[in-house]
Known about the structure:
CATH class of chain B: Alpha Beta
Strand content of chain B: 5-15%
Helix content of chain A: 40-55%
Bound molecules: nicotinamide-adenine-dinucleotide
CATH superfamily of chain B: NAD(P)-binding Rossmann-like Domain
Structural class of chain A: alpha/beta
Number of domains of chain B: 1
Structural class of chain B: alpha/beta
Shape of chain B: globular
Largest sheet of chain B: 7 strands, parallel
Oligomer: heterodimer
CATH architecture of chain A: 3-Layer(aba) Sandwich
Largest sheet of chain A: 7 strands, parallel
Radius of gyration of chain B: 18 Å
Helix content of chain B: 25-40%
CATH topology of chain A: Rossmann fold
Amino acid sequence: MPRLENRVVLLSGGASGIGAETARLVVREGGKAVLADRDEAKGLALAAELGTAAHFVPLDVTQEPSWQAAVAATVEKFGALHGLLNAAGVGVRNTIEDCTLEEYRRVNDINSLGTFLGCKLAIPAMKASGGGSIVNISSVLGLRGAAHAMAYSASKGAVRSLTKNVALHCAQMKYNIRCNSVHPGYIDTPMIAPRLEQNVENMSGRQFLEELHPLGRLGRPEEVANMILFLLSDESTFSTGSEFVCDGGLTA
Amino acid sequence: MSGELSGRVAIVTGGASGIGAASATLLAAAGATVIVADIQEGPNAKGDGPGRFVAHDVVSEDSWKALLADVLKREGRLDIMVNNAGISGGSGNPETTTVENWQKVQAVDSDGVFLGSKYAIEGMKKTGPGKSAIKGSIVNISSIAGLIGSAGPTAYTAAKGAVRLLSKSVALYCAEQRYDIRCNSVHPGGVDTAIFNPLWQMVGHAQGKAFIGTRHPIGRMSEASELGEAVLFLASDRSSFVTGAEIVADGAITAGLMRRSLLAPP
Ligand SMILES: NC(=O)c1ccc[n+]([C@@H]2O[C@H](COP(=O)([O-])OP(=O)(O)OC[C@H]3O[C@@H](n4cnc5c(N)ncnc54)[C@H](O)[C@@H]3O)[C@@H](O)[C@H]2O)c1
Ligand SMILES: NC(=O)c1ccc[n+]([C@@H]2O[C@H](COP(=O)([O-])OP(=O)(O)OC[C@H]3O[C@@H](n4cnc5c(N)ncnc54)[C@H](O)[C@@H]3O)[C@@H](O)[C@H]2O)c1
């Protein structure tokens, strides 16, 4: 039996990278995938490729009305909401000395406020659907700091803490809604593509990042998608408020 | 122990009340020149408390620039920065928290610590050659809410999670640059301060304090001075190999397992 039969999953950042790979897997496992992204061209193309079990909605995660519209469109199209993946995000490099207040705010608005709004707007729709599972993508940098990804790391620390708060609130309210965070290492997606080109310490960027991981390579988006699918499915019904690390041994 | 910080200059944000006021008192007792920076006036504004009071809003970058310029002009150096100012922002949960409330809390509890760390480094770098070696220490007050999810409202919890990671990135950056500046986060449990005023007003101070005490394995809330001691340790050279770390002072709340009974709101 498919693992997500007739489950409706809304995926922010669903047009690219980890979100896109998860959407493919959701559809393959019998679910419905609503791709929500600010990149319309990529989102529409992937929705067309995935067929009738997929749908695209434009979304800017930093805007509450945009989230309201995306959740409403999901319920209108597929009749329910069982799963939410908060994968929209930006990877930005800066340090405590060169980051401006404006930039700190921008990164936190997309990665942290965006995830909060996704949780907030999905909860009522999930309640009406009998329960659900929320998966928030944090990062290994939500567990460990980084000198050159200060604002990003702060935003992912916020996502880690927010996830636990949402999980405990839903548990206390008996909503049958779980919420967990996923912490990927460096995954080969468009987000890190620019870094793969830049040489570091006489190595290509790719080699440098590969060397960081005890497994000696970058992660593939489908490897993270597999972990997300486990969390969206009924295979993980006793997991909530927890951290799921998928990092090739990086934080070990 | 007295005098271990003599010659050092410390800024304590939110220093007019609670943990900040206790930290200011202990830093001053250890010999530091303390600047109490706060949006509200505390006892020291009238000359009754330790240090010099400066009106300051952690949310405003202009206010940070003015504070730093003033301290470098008057005290001539900066060695210790305690980013303590914070608000709980009310009791919003994931369903009831508004974007407005979220932004207001992030502005004080997250952006304020970001700006405080950034301007601390700038000030500490200007304290340097000819003014004796820099041994800077940045102390950021997070919370157990930055470690586990039980405590605190949604926007507050997220902000404290940001502070925990921000502090590690600052520590790593300063280490990499070979600045002699350390940065750590402090994670208090329940501390008897004005941050609980809304609860005190509802159930009375003694009763509220006893109730929150029962939620700590140790059976009581902490006093602000107990957190001031943690801040003093991190500010002093006694913690010279401690950077990027978390100092937990929570009466064992995070030591054990989450109990369902602790989830119910007071
Ligand atoms: N790739 C990695 O190495 C890595 C590591 C750890 C965590 N992550 C996290 O995984 C998540 C997915 O990243 P990815 O690697 O698949 O990157 P990606 O760039 O391939 O995909 C991110 C998607 O988010 C969308 N997006 C960005 N801002 C948005 C906004 N304001 N509103 C709506 N959509 C927006 C983009 O259009 C894009 O489609 C992100 O949260 C990222 O921080 C990635
Ligand atoms: N009391 C606790 O149980 C507890 C637990 C964990 C963490 N904390 C944290 O400890 C820190 C100190 O809190 P407290 O308990 O002493 O509270 P408090 O309310 O007694 O003191 C906070 C001080 O910060 C000041 N402040 C608020 N906004 C400011 C701004 N924008 N600019 C400058 N100053 C501002 C206030 O005027 C006040 O003097 C906060 O960051 C708080 O989140 C407290």
